[in-house]
Amino acid sequence: MYMEWNGVMPAVTTKFTNEGELDLKMFAINIDAQIEAGVSAIVLGGSLGEASTLNNLEKQRLVEYSASLTNGRVPVVMNIAERATSEAIKLAQNAKKWGASGLMLLPPMQYKATDYEVVEYFKAIASSTDLPIMIYNNPIDYKILVTLNMFEELLSCDNIKAVKESTRDISNISRIRNAFGDRLKILCGVDTLALESLLVDADGWIAGLVCAFPEETVAVYKLAKAGRVEEAISIYRWFLPLLELDINPQLVQNIKLAEVATGIGTEYVRLPRMPLQGKERERVLKIIEDGVATRPVLPDYKQL
């Protein structure tokens, strides 16, 4: 399926049963809610998807099941976050066979590679597949910054098309646009900077709280792109306390609690993650409960 790097793309959570197995039934409920709300693609197996706890067979099952479930309605993007280049290449080659329409690439895991090593890592994966690729640029969490000079080299690979911009420096969007124009599509990867990013010309939003609030997330995107900024701001201000749950080490537990509150998920996580406890659980639940109780009435954003 043709991949366009724009719109809202949920970094979906991986649903588990109480026994720790994949819960494809609840996963399907959530994916259907995302598509009904108007998302542009589904991103599987990222940090929010607890990728580090998934084996390759489970990744295969998730991609194949998602491709079957979406049935051409939206593309499926598979995340790759590996220690070894050889393993990343194998996953990239298998992803297309499994039904993925695009890839999101993280830099090498558990090793702070040099700029040269990072570029060569990405190039090796890109040259092994014809799937379009989005580079995940997140120096806060992964300690590696993909610079403009590095992107200039990477764009020699025809299938490197986009960046998930998570530097948390809003001006970096304009730097990328000034340097590359439309050669590199820009998608915001930080929920609390999403509207600001869209208003300075980001093409899309790789979102987290969309997992629990898909309609509100897509409405913010659509209104912003339609120039209805005041309406977008109004929803975004309601949304902000919830969006801040995404910029937290326990983002998976936080967002899964929100999915429970909106009826499209469960709380189950895989060890070493554990459900929130004590006062932190109470704090997060209060934010979620307040958000659900005051959900805004949305305009007919799907027609925009």
Automatic annotation (TrEMBL):
Entry keyword annotation includes Lyase: yes
Top-level taxon of origin: Bacteria
Keyword Nucleotidyltransferase: no
Keywords: Lyase
Record-linked InterPro entries: Aldolase_TIM, DapA-like
Similarity comment: Belongs to the DapA family.
Protein name: Dihydrodipicolinate synthase family protein
